[in-house]
Amino acid sequence: MDESRTNLAWGVLLDLPEAGAKHERLTRALRVAVRSGRLPAGSALPPSRTLAADLGCSRWVVTQAYKQLVAEGYLDAQVGSATRVRWTPDTVPAPSGADRPPAPQTRFDLTPGLPDLRAFPRARWGEAVRDQARRAPFPDLGFPPPGGHPELRRVLADHLHRSRGVVVDTDDIVVSTGVTDGAARLFRALRAEGITRVAVEDPGWTRLHHVAREAGLTVVPVPVDEHGLRVAELDRDPTVRAVLTTPAHQFPTGVTLTAERRAALVEWVRRIDGVVLEDDYDAEFRYDHRPLGAVQGMCPQRVVLLGSVSKTMSPALGIGWVVAPPQWRRVLQASGTVRSGPPVLDQLAFARLMRTGGYDRHLRSVRQRYRARRAALLDALRTRLPACQVTGSAAGLHLVAHLGDGVDAADVVTAAAARGLRLVDLGAYRVDRREPADCLVLGYGNLADGAVDDAVVMLAASVADQSAHDSGPPR
Predict the structure, then answer these.
(1) Quick check: 397 and 285 in contact, CB under 8 A?
(2) Beta bridge partners of 320
(3) Cα separation values, 466 from 116, 153, 404, Å
(4) What are phi and psi of 367, to 5 degrees?
(5) What own/partner pairs with CB < 8 Å and gap ≥ 24 does 226-234 have?
(6) What three-state secondary structure class fits 442?
(7) Would residue 244 be called left, alpha or beta, if left means φ above 0 and alpha means ψ between -120 and 50 degrees?
(8) What element of type H or E holds 439?
(9) Rounded Cα distance, 322 and 450, in Å
(10) Is residue 249 within 8 Å of 280, Cβ to Cβ?
(11) Listed residue (271, 184, 268, 283) closest to 232, CA to CA
(12) What's the CA gap between 465 and 415, in Å, rounded?
């Protein structure tokens, strides 16, 4: 038995109830400690004489409590050995109806949100971390600088200017732990400036909608069509002075905001003295056309750019950034929301990776990987689901599969789950989720190359199940 596990139970704080006989109170306290996990399975309890001395009670009180819990199956007592915890959460008596077959394990996951975690540059990242651990000056090992380490902000400014057409200086960048963190800071800053309503794309990334509400903002949905956000509809609500948008590759529809609507968005934000929150989602992965520059480059005084490495490398790194014009950067600093961020050594390691070209080489490698996987997925869909129409596949790590009229995507999701295939329908990303959808959002970023065809075979079978169910028995 592990020594730490052996001694674990000796220092556990017991919350003894006020009412009841002493042995009953001790029994209840021990039972709660076991069931809550504070006394995990295998933990050795103190000898009855020792616990009695610690609690200031008779030994009989302790032995009675131990006996009761042994009888209930919580403890195990053997002659010549310590009394140990035997109960685990798995030993909970099965509730009624638990004889149903367990849900199948997920074999394939086609939900969006992850890059190819197999492609994470472990060697390069490990080398970068080791290098910075050796070389970082002693002051860098203290508390993180407000807004992020200057070296990371410097190389980020260079990268964003070169690859995304962003108009940026080092001082314009605030390092965050990701887009969600950056958006939460901005939403709080908006609220502090008296902006209480923010327009969002519908459908859109609902997680950020929740974050906006948590910051005290009212979310105003604006529809998205094949040209992107319907910018003209922003004028329908004159109280809206902020909008959150994903112009490079709209999530989840996958469309790109057209040049006309980009110009209209810039005209709108200037006219109403507002702010655009540009989520640079999937901007690094474009396959059919050259990448488009960020909207921020068209109006750096009114657009705040949000980005991260969650899709390019891994969300586990927790590194993101906010490019903010001076007036909003000052609000962020004044509100005290720029103190937290990723660890300094990780910031320096990422800066090294960018400075030495390792990040660019990684991006080129995964672009080729995703391009080939996207082609394989499109081929499989054409073969297995010829009636399915695909949109939003020109960029990013997901596409939208239109199943056709009469097919309820939510029912397909349920049928697929029974087979071990995880899916999500477009309706899950709408502000009003009651509206039915005939579309699936298929993420292929973290799907193994060899699993593409098998996953689509399972998808086709799930669609066939739902179609057959809807058609009913033959007449």
Answers:
(1) yes
(2) 176, 308
(3) 30, 51, 12
(4) -60, -45
(5) 226/255, 226/391, 227/255, 227/257, 227/258, 227/260, 227/261, 228/255, 228/256, 228/257, 228/258, 228/261, 229/201, 229/257, 229/261, 229/265, 230/261, 231/261, 231/264, 231/265, 231/268, 232/264, 234/199, 234/268
(6) strand
(7) beta
(8) strand 439-443
(9) 37
(10) no
(11) 268
(12) 7
Lookup result for tokens 């060899």 = 450
CA distances from 459 to 42, 371, 450, 455 (A): 44, 21, 16, 6
State both tokens at 165: 């057409």
Rg (CA), the chain: 28
Q: What is the residue-level pLDDT of the chain in tens, covering all 475 positions?
A: 344 444 445 555 566 666 667 888 888 888 888 888 888 888 888 888 888 888 888 888 888 888 888 888 888 887 667 888 888 876 554 444 445 555 568 899 999 989 999 999 999 999 999 999 999 999 988 887 888 999 999 999 999 999 999 999 999 999 999 999 999 999 999 999 999 999 999 999 999 999 999 999 999 999 999 999 999 999 999 999 999 999 999 999 999 999 999 999 999 999 999 999 999 988 888 887 677 899 999 999 999 999 999 999 999 999 999 999 998 888 777 655 555 689 999 999 999 999 999 999 999 999 999 999 999 999 999 999 999 999 999 889 999 999 987 788 999 999 999 999 999 999 999 987 666 678 999 999 999 999 999 999 999 999 998 766 555 544 3
Indicate the SS3 state at residue 303: strand
Residue type, 190: L
| Residue with token string 């200037």 | 270
Task: Say how far apart CA 173 and CA 351 lie, in whole Å.
Answer: 14
The DSSP code for 318 is -
Beta-ladder partners of 440? 401, 425
- The separation between CA 217 and the C-alpha centre of its own chain, rounded to angstroms, equals 21
Instruction: Strands of 315-363 (E only): list them.
Output: 320-323
